């Protein structure tokens, strides 16, 4: 379970995935192929890793039994373009307090997911059906496109992307994100006053472009 309380999690989500990633200094960003299933989807919570076979969503049903309130299901389905998740599972997930879904695979019923407010992030939207043959693995670490995700890792997902932070780094990253946001607020004020990024960020010393006029 994360060391951050509900208010701190909400604050980190408001700061955003990009700020959390940059402030962390860690290679914690999932590839941009993971996208929100509907505009405005965002979530934060502790990872519950799930491994599923191509075209088989039985492990996701088992995952809902294992999930705790505030969990984000993080599913390695090998990028299979099947509709692993839709309205039925989302309704059950909401009732159990699941905070969201990240899946290397497909989801469906995206309009209904938006209407009921269930945040889902996937590598595809697909209507191809799934079987129920392999119960998979629930709780053991998974690898999503080379990124290891373990039980209890902190997931921050929004329109910009997804950051997955080791649980032990959660508080440090929150503090660093706050500091980064405060510094950016100061920069924004100076930019509105006419300052240049070249000066604020010290880019002049990196060299000038050739004159192409």
TrEMBL record:
EC class (word): lyase
InterPro entries annotated for this entry?
A: RraA/RraA-like, RraA/RraA-like_sf
Family (UniProt): Belongs to the class II aldolase/RraA-like family.
Protein's name according to its UniProt entry: Putative 4-hydroxy-4-methyl-2-oxoglutarate aldolase
Highest taxon in the source lineage = Bacteria
Pfam entry (one): RraA-like
The EC number on file is: 4.1.1.112, 4.1.3.17
List the cofactors.
a divalent metal cation
* Organism listed in the record: Streptomyces cylindrosporus
**Reactions accelerated catalytically:** 4-hydroxy-4-methyl-2-oxoglutarate = 2 pyruvate; oxaloacetate + H(+) = pyruvate + CO2
